[in-house]
Amino acid sequence: MIECKDIKKIYTNGDVETTALKGISFKIEKGEFVSIIGPSGSGKSTLMHIIGALDTPSSGKYFFDGAEVSKLDDDELSDLRRNKIGFVFQSFNLLPRTTVMRNVMMPLIYSGITRAKREQKARDCLKYAGMEEDKFYNLSNQLSGGQMQRVAIARALINDPSIILADEPTGNLDTKTSHLVMSALKELNEKGHTVILITHEMDVARYAKRIITIRDGEIESDEVS
């Protein structure tokens, strides 16, 4: 599903060059649960942006479902991000004074799907993500951190993406709530979803079946539990 071949990323600021990635290569197959872990400055966030088609490598090749991403035009890249990758962020990125249902339905507003079908799909995704049904019409700013992250997971699922890309999804949560959110992601993987998790916490990374450790822009280890 995903293949990175000798991915390098160099940032230039005037005469100063900073190499964030120094030749990263790996494959992720459909149905895997993979954690990419590393300390601050290791290059994991840069790699996440490339996997999510939010940035491009300076050199090397990145393939998603067999297509070389650098050769896609802007419309194809937008389609890839919108329909094939479900993003879950540390900061939730929910509209604060908007209901849970509307937050989840947002990616479908311009899809041509009727409102009734959008609502039913949002309900299904919320239940799938483990969200309590009595909270569906609450405003998102009335929810706990764990509930907001479950809403974010439901929104990530709304377009039936090929992968769920979770960037530090427990970064703003306490230990107990982090466990609940990670258990939800693990359950989604067990139901067949491909999950890629970016984290700096080993306790969180261990929920995955495979851990890729990044340090100083290189893969330090790639282990399957």
- How helical, in percent, are the residues? 25-40%
Amount of beta strand: 25-35%
Tell me the series of helices and strands, N- to C-terminal: EEEHEEHEHHHEHEHEE
Strand count, sense and closure of the main sheet? Answer: 6 strands, mixed
CATH class: Alpha Beta
Q: Provide the gyration radius in Å.
A: 18 Å
Number of contiguous helices: 7
Give the full name of the CATH homologous superfamily.
P-loop containing nucleotide triphosphate hydrolases
Shape: globular
Ends apart, CA distance between termini: 20 Å
Q: How many domains comprise the coordinates?
A: 1
Estimated structural class: alpha/beta
Average pLDDT confidence is 92
Detail the poorly predicted runs. none
Count of DSSP strands: 10
Strands across the major sheet, in which order? 6-7-8-3-9-10
CATH architecture: 3-Layer(aba) Sandwich
Could you say what the CATH topology is called? Rossmann fold
Describe this structure in words.
There is one protein chain. With 225 residues, the chain is α/β, with parallel strands linked by helices. The protein has one domain: P-loop containing nucleotide triphosphate hydrolases (Rossmann fold), CATH 3.40.50. It has helices at 44-51, 74-83, 100-105, 115-128, 145-157, 175-190, 202-205, and strands at 2-13, 16-28, 33-37, 59-64, 67-68, 85-89, 163-167, 194-199, 210-215, 218-224. Strands 6-7-8-3-9-10 form a six-stranded mixed β-sheet, sandwiched between helices. Strands 2-1-4-5 form a four-stranded antiparallel β-sheet, covered by helices on one side. Helix 5 (145-157) packs parallel to helix 6. It is globular.
